[in-house]
Design a protein that fits this description.
Blueprint (H helix, E strand, L loop, with lengths): L4 E6 L3 H12 L4 E4 L6 H6 L1 H20 L13 H26 L2 E3 L4 E4 L2 E4 L2 E10 L3 E3 L13 H4 L8 E5 L3 H12 L3 E5 L11 H13 L3 E3 L4 E7 L2 E6 L4 E5 L1 E4 L3 E3 L32 E3 L10 H16 L13 E3 L5 E5 L2 H8 L2 E8 L13 E8 L5 E7 L3 H13 L4 H6 L16
Parallel strand pairs: 1-2, 1-6, 2-3, 6-16, 8-9, 8-14, 9-10
Antiparallel strand pairs: 4-5, 5-6, 7-15, 11-12, 12-13, 17-18, 18-21, 19-20, 20-21
Helix pairs in contact: 1-4, 1-8, 3-4, 3-6
């Protein structure tokens, strides 16, 4: 058959753009469809803008501790509108870079939403386009539970661009997105309520990490409300009263942020027109070749992956194109993926939690340390750092590393490389620590 393109990519986020560029680099004719801004969740409405707000919130502790180091910053003030304007300018800059990357790679960008018609065809703006292969890279989107008044809540998308900084807000959920925004707004002076249905925040993380993080958030002033569900959001003039299924009352909330998870972004994608396999949670079900049923339909990234991480989507797409067009034979490995929650304090993890490790590796040795980082030694800030290593007793292999504290994300990357390569605790002990740093604690724990 004669096709319009060798490859059609639906979704111009990190995974889709990388896939399109690599395929075009192999001389293939590629089109990428995007109904919104190029860059996807991470660049436009996720990791990048959120991290910029995290940096802004981090200055609070910097200013608070500056005087102990000889700095006079009594006239420091904060302007939310300036932050948002500068953030928007940076996102626009990155969007232009992504547009240039596609253009310079020879990828045809079609800025319309695409719907799959059949195994080789999509329709966009009432025009059909065909390709030998179609790659779904539409990512994920915020999930809203079905409760009365949920239309009054905002998602993480809107939270990045609020018109003004509220005095008080409530966040629904207690996963990584919820706690990151709770810490951002709390640091910037907002009274934050964090409402979660369970009895402990950050489900899926190591229990010691969960306990330490929750204690830290509470000490920093976040009102953590557990074992509670918001069952109604009632407008009250320009504010909102929240009805909970517990005996707690939350009135006059200026913002209600729903951060109860994300779901695969498959709306109006046309999956009903092809025999694509779906998981129980609505994600596209793929095999090791990223194939999702029809021989011509594939998917990468958050739309099909439980590891909702930008580098995972990029790696999946890149390696897939290498295998198709460059005689590659490499596959992504999902074990020992490092990740970071950019809360205050940061949470960084690589490998197994203690609970998971007990099931996979049997007898364990657990090493923990809790200390006050040197950067706060001369200040009134009492924040502590928590570190944990999980070691399989039989082999001495380090199978889990968890850090809660300042710069945790920067620390975990190097140790993740070592863990991925199979480092043992004995080898870790032989490493010389850099003194004085917090990271040296990971090579001296006993």
């Amino acid at each position: 058959m004669g096709f319009d393109f060798d490859l059609i990519v639906i979704g111009a986020g990190s995974g889709g753009v990388r896939s399109a560029r690599i395929a075009a680099g192999y001389g293939k004719k590629v089109a990428i469809f995007e109904g919104s801004d190029v860059g996807g969740t991470c660049v436009i409405r996720g990791c990048v803008p959120k991290k910029l707000l995290v940096y802004a919130a981090g200055f609070v502790k910097t200013f608070k501790s500056a005087q102990a180091f000889g700095w006079d910053i009594d006239d420091a003030s904060f302007n939310w509108q300036n932050l948002i304007a500068n953030k928007d300018a940076e996102i626009n800059r990155l969007n232009k870079i992504y547009l240039s990357l596609l253009s310079n790679s020879g990828v045809e960008l079609i800025q319309h939403h695409a719907t799959i018609v059949d195994n080789h065809t999509v329709v966009a703006a009432n025009k059909n386009y065909s390709a030998k292969r179609i790659l779904i890279a539409t990512g994920s989107t915020p999930f809203f539970p079905e409760i009365d008044g949920i239309e009054h809540a905002v998602s993480s998308n809107e939270a990045l661009s609020l018109n003004s900084l509220p005095e008080e807000m409530t966040i629904m959920g207690a996963g990584y997105i919820a706690v990151e925004f709770a810490c951002i707004f709390n640091a910037l002076g907002v009274k934050v309520n964090l409402v979660y249905r369970g009895d402990k925040i950050l489900r899926g993380f190591d229990n010691d990490v969960r306990n330490f993080a929750e204690e830290s958030y509470i000490k920093n002033g976040i009102n953590v409300i557990l074992n509670s569900n918001i069952i109604e959001i009632k407008p009250n003039h320009e504010k909102f009263d929240l009805v909970l299924d517990s005996d707690i009352s939350l009135k006059n909330q200026e913002v209600v942020l729903c951060a109860t998870g994300r779901i695969a972004n498959t709306y109006n994608l046309g999956l009903e027109n092809i025999q694509v396999k779906l998981k129980y949670n609505g994600q596209v079900d793929v095999d090791a070749e990223q194939n999702c049923g029809p021989r011509s339909i594939f998917a990468v990234g958050d739309v099909c992956n439980n590891d909702n991480l930008t580098p995972v989507a990029i790696k999946e797409g890149h390696l897939l194109m290498d295998r198709w067009y460059g005689n590659g034979n490499s596959y992504i490995e999902y074990d020992y993926l490092p990740s970071t929650v950019f809360s205050q304090p940061e949470i960084a993890s690589c490998g197994y939690t203690e609970e998971q490790a007990e099931e996979h590796f049997g007898a364990l040795q657990i090493f923990t340390s809790k200390f006050r980082a040197m950067k706060y030694a001369m200040t009134d800030i009492q924040d502590q750092t928590f570190m944990k290593l999980i070691v399989q007793k039989e082999t001495d292999l380090v199978v889990g590393c968890h850090i809660v504290g300042a710069d945790a994300g920067e620390m975990i990357q190097g140790f993740a490389v070592a863990i991925k390569q199979g480092i043992t605790k004995s080898k870790l002990n032989q490493c010389i620590g850099i003194h004085p740093t917090s990271a040296e604690e990971l090579v001296t724990m006993n």
